[in-house]
Amino acid sequence: MKKYIEPKNIIWQELLNRPEVKKEDLSQLVKEIFNDVRLNGDEAIIKNTALFDKVKLDDFKVSDEEVRESSKNVRLDLKQAILVAKSNIEKFHRSQIVNTQIVETANGVKCWQESRAIEKVGLYIPGGSAPLFSTVLMLAVPAVLAGCKEIVLCTPPNKEGKIADEILYAADLVGVTQIFKVGGIQAIAGLTYGTETIPKVYKIFGPGNQYVTAAKMEAFGCGVAIDMPAGPSELLVVADDSAVPKFVAADLLSQAEHGADSQVVCVATNKILLDDIEKELLAQLEELPRKEIASQALLNSKLIVISAKEKIIEFVNEYAPEHLILAVEDEVYFCENTINAGSIFIGNYTPESAGDYASGTNHTLPTNGFSRSFSGVNMDAFVKKVTFQKITKEGILNLGSSIELMAEAELLQAHKNAVTVRLNELNK
């Protein structure tokens, strides 16, 4: 990890940069696979799965029998843990459902807004080196609560052509309607265009590597909505003398082990604390089963000393992290002044992994600085807001002249006439 002591603002751009594959390198590949899937459907899915996942599958739809068998292979204690997480995620997301409120904007003019579920949604669940069954809960629970009719899940198969039992168990538990053994760019393309087997959806959700992110952006260009540009995972920890170095190091490594393209950053208020965190980090790294992956991620990561809390906040909001841990004494100051972050974890006993699994908040969050403009996945992501208005005779009499004047000023005579004919009828 690179170390910076009281860096000047002039080099902040270097600190803010994320590791990434050049966009032009991905653009051509994504377009080629999308075009292949658009023209050749299932054949292209099978071909690209063999190419990228190294497994030939003639049938990539998961059968009911496979789902039933998967449940038998999941440990009872893990099932219970998944049920606890599901319950907490349901509680938190159900609290986001807003009741309809009718507003009378003028006498005789009533307006309101209602939610309508997106009928067909696609969920992308990363598989790769770590099959993320927790993401099934994070995406499918709010989709079910919202009332989405079709919930289609895609996740890459392993070399044996199988999906992790835990992913299938979680998907069945929460009510996913169809599951496919398809990952990467070809999965996003299949959900975008539809194939003989994979249904076309209206919105695609889920994190992934930079290939998946690039594919989602291509899907958006093809008329399919996406949740956000969610790429490789990232974490920023802010630590002062109240922080426990052992805890901070563990949190940094918890994100570093996601993948070689992940990034973790630690901002400490003094060099002694930063050195203690680094020592702990290197010691804990040696004990990790995923040490090699975490080590590669640490090459993209940074240790920084910034003593002034005003400067720290400035850096936090410029970096706009996916996950932000505040291991600080003045929690109120940092919480109130943090504008750009996907999810915030407060205090020494709030590990980022709590949000990843079971506290109840959603772990599908904006990365690569997109928390400046995107929220993490929530209930609103699975619905559309439809507005309504009801105007009575009294209402059109009260509002009519204002509409006429505005329409006439915009030279839209037909707009004006739509009101005028009603007013004339009422004034007879």
Written overview of the protein:
The chain is α/β, with parallel strands linked by helices and 428 residues long. 46% of the residues lie in helices and 16% in strands. The chain has 17 helices and 14 strands. The strands form three sheets. A six-stranded parallel beta sheet has the order 1-11-10-9-12-13, sandwiched between helices. Strands 6-5-4-7-8 form a five-stranded parallel beta sheet, sandwiched between helices. Strands 2-3-14 form a three-stranded antiparallel beta sheet. Helix 3 packs antiparallel against helix 8, helix 4 crosses helix 7 and helix 16 packs antiparallel against helix 17. It is globular, with a radius of gyration of 25 Å.
SSE layout and pairings?
Layout: E1 2-5, H1 12-16, H2 23-40, H3 42-53, H4 64-72, H5 76-94, E2 103-106, E3 109-117, E4 120-124, H6 133-146, E5 150-154, H7 165-174, E6 178-180, H8 184-193, E7 203-205, H9 210-221, E8 225-226, E9 234-239, H10 245-256, E10 263-268, H11 271-285, H12 291-298, E11 302-305, H13 309-319, E12 323-327, H14 331-337, E13 343-346, H15 352-357, E14 383-391, H16 393-409, H17 413-426
Helix pairs in contact: 2-3, 2-8, 2-9, 3-8, 4-7, 5-6, 6-7, 8-9, 10-11, 16-17
